[in-house]
Amino acid sequence: AEAVEAHRQIVEDIPGAGLLVVTSAGRLQDGWMAALQAGAPEAAHVRRLLAPLAADAGLVTILDGHPATLSWLGAVGPHRVLPLGVSHFGQSGDIQDLYRAYRLDVDAILDAAARLCVGDHPRP
Fold it and tell me: Model confidence over 71-94: pLDDT tens digits?
């Protein structure tokens, strides 16, 4: 819900902004690795999913798991990635409080997108 709401707000300022929901990071990454090992990265499903993006597009990944889980998406193309996720565990609370504490709420997503848009998160 947070990503959908953040996307709704982003498209008000950036009409071409997109939202991709990854239902299985493992399967998507397995396909990428298989395509790389076969010497055919262009055949990877993830490459086709990200192909419509401009070269200077940024990716904000959001996961209620470790942020590195989706950060590999930056290897698929020239896109900068700002991964959001949970890097420490053990907190308790309701979903809204936890998403705010772990910076997975709408405000954090909007902040990450803004940082990518203004170049505050350069590609390493």
Answer: 999 999 999 999 999 998 888 889
Phi/psi of residue 105, each to 5°? -85, 175
The reply to whether 110 falls in a domain is yes
| Straight-line distance from the first to the last Cα atom of the chain, in angstroms, rounded to the nearest whole number | 30
> Amino acid identity, residue 28?
L
Number of domains in the chain: 1
Q: Evaluate if pTM is beyond 0.90.
A: no
Assess if residue 46 is contained within a domain: no
Distance (Å) of CA 75 to CA 15, 56, 85: 25, 14, 18
